[in-house]
Amino acid sequence: MEASALEPADADLPAEAAAAVREGPFDVAFDLVIRHRGLSLEGLQRRMAIRGAQVSLATLSYWRRGRRHPEGGRSLHAVRVAEGCLGLPADALTGLVTPARPRARRAEPFPGGVSLASALGAEPTELGSCDGIDLDGNARLAIASVHQRATLTADRTEGSVRTEMVVTSREDGVDRWVSFFRPQTGGAHHPALRSAHCCRPGRIRRDPSSELLAVELRFDYPLRAGETYVFDFDFGYDGEPPETSYLQFGIRAPARQLVLQAHFDPAAVPVRCYRYHRPRDGSSDVVGEPELPVGPSLTSHIAVLDAQPGVYGMVWEWD
What we know:
The chain is of the alpha+beta class. The chain has helices at about 15-25, 25-35, 40-50, 55-65, 75-85, 115-120, and strands at about 140-150, 160-170, 175-180, 190-195, 200-205, 215-225, 230-235, 245-250, 255-265, 270-280, 285, 300-305, 310-315. It has a 6-stranded mixed sheet with strand order 4-7-2-1-9-12, with no helix packed on it. Strands 8-13-10-11 form a 4-stranded antiparallel sheet. α1 packs antiparallel against α2 (about 25-35). It starts with 14 loop residues before the first helix and ends with a strand.
């Protein structure tokens, strides 16, 4: 049960943890409260995901050890969700987060859209590794349709993610799409482009800490303004695939159709599945009701028509 906002933040904490919550620093308070609640990082991540906050285990670990500090609207929202999951009142932890430090290079939001970091569910600093890639180049294309399908394995890992896209060029000469992919959890998973049809890989960049992967997919020919193009690609892993409990896709401009589909193995079928949506930077995720069904085909999906900028996803509970 969440603590009441009228109770002091340290009402039920041991002295050391209570002092850290009152005085900081954030990483010490975060670590001590997690320890006191008897939660693993995986358990905390799972609780946060159910409440619509998608954070990688690597990021939670960095926050806990002080290697990285929460900054930006998405991270602060995640800290607020963590407060509820840890039975703390509002602002018990967010009050310890210092003002944002100077950031590395980041892409500006699309007009009326969201920032690239928010659409990816990434920290802005992770984009500093995308040297030589035009992070705003996708704005030259309008998304008519995107269909992303994740295949989950018997050990609950993400076997592959296949994406099929139909785009329309906004201007003459557009010849590529930049795709971003990142594993849910930290570690040496080594995400990799497995195949591409009607396109070929160009520049490839990887953030070493988060394993965020950016790949230029170059079309067969430059498009004319108003011309459509159809292509698809698959991502997988060279290392051990991570256990995964969500699938999401972020868009920075409106899309006519967005479909996300998860296919589960008969040996690992989730007990519950929900949809969620983060409409814009800094806003709270909205977890959909009722639950998404998982049919006899062992698939579940969401379909959004006339999708507006934001992050759309589905999250499931294994146990």
